[in-house]
């Protein structure tokens, strides 16, 4: 039994790798997050001349809401098919995206997990941020529950000299920045990386008090980074 994790672009179709295109072309069984997003990507690749025909394999769906209940069934399907690929809507599978339970189960059964790397928003943002990449703490999406959020802030407080990377919904950026300022001070260097690799890509860098003072309503996808 083999599962191949395929990294996809964050937004710019030209970031897809040759290996990812070949693997998509040859795939007979695909597990994706959202069939509409998968077909949209496939069509873009057809339009750009990388794929010739429409997808004729089997498509299965896994998302954050159904992964736990579907994992046993998915493992059966992968076993029957012999191999499958797993893709997210964008970026790397398992990175704040579904797939962990499937990978864990395949490894427990001594199956093979292979990866075709692609971009992740976290690392793409880190490299362009101007913040040190020597020691990094990636927290993904913070919980909305105060208790769990505070556990994360405690973790950050204990670790000095690190760059912290967060995924955040645009409507919550201001609140999260305010929490960072309250916890780590107005001089904290912060970066907001918005719409990476897309038409309206924007990188906002500065000390957090200035960034907050000049913050306009944020649209699109956002990574927040700060140094402490
Ligand atoms: N698997 C993806 C990866 O490898 O980065 C992450 C998926 S997670 C569900 C989506 C979050 O990733 C967004 O809310 C945002 O925080 C971040 N993200 C994804 N694409 C982005 C982009 N183009 N620019 C900025 N942030 C992005």
From TrEMBL:
It catalyses: cytidine(1402) in 16S rRNA + S-adenosyl-L-methionine = 2'-O-methylcytidine(1402) in 16S rRNA + S-adenosyl-L-homocysteine + H(+). The keyword RNA-binding does not apply. One of its GO terms (molecular function) is rRNA (cytosine-2'-O-)-methyltransferase activity. Its EC number is 2.1.1.198. It is found in: Cytoplasm. PROSITE patterns: RSMI (PS01296). SUPFAM superfamilies: Tetrapyrrole methylase (SSF53790). Its main location: cytoplasm. Residues 2-211 form the Tetrapyrrole methylase domain. GO terms for cellular component: cytoplasm. It is an enzyme of class 2 (transferase). It holds the Pfam family TP_methylase. It comes from the Bacteria. Catalyzes the 2'-O-methylation of the ribose of cytidine 1402 (C1402) in 16S rRNA. Belongs to the methyltransferase superfamily. RsmI family. This is Ribosomal RNA small subunit methyltransferase I. It comes from Candidatus Collierbacteria bacterium RIFCSPHIGHO2_01_FULL_50_25. The lineage of its organism: Bacteria, Candidatus Collieribacteriota.
């Amino acid at each position: 039994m083999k599962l191949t994790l395929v990294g996809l672009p964050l937004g710019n179709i030209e970031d897809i790798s040759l290996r990812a295109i070949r693997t998509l072309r040859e795939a007979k069984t695909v597990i994706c997050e959202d069939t509409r997003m998968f077909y949209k990507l496939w069509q873009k690749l057809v339009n750009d001349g990388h794929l010739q025909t429409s997808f004729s394999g089997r498509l299965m769906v896994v998302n954050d809401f159904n992964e736990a209940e579907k994992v046993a069934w998915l493992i059966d399907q992968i076993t029957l098919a012999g191999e499958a690929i797993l893709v997210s809507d964008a970026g790397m599978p398992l990175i704040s995206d579904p797939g962990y339970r499937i990978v864990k189960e395949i490894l427990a059964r001594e199956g093979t997990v292979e990866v075709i790397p692609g971009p992740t928003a976290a690392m793409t943002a880190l490299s362009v941020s101007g913040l040190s990449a020597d020691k990094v703490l990636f927290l993904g999406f913070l919980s909305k529950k105060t208790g769990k959020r505070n556990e994360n802030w405690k973790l950050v407080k204990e670790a000095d000299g690190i760059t912290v990377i967060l995924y955040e919904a645009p409507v919550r950026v201001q609140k999260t920045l305010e929490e960072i300022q309250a916890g780590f001070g107005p001089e904290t260097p912060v970066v907001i990386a918005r719409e990476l690799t897309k038409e309206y890509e924007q990188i906002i860098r500065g000390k957090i008090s200035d960034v907050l003072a000049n913050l306009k309503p944020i649209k699109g996808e956002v990574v927040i980074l700060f140094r402490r």
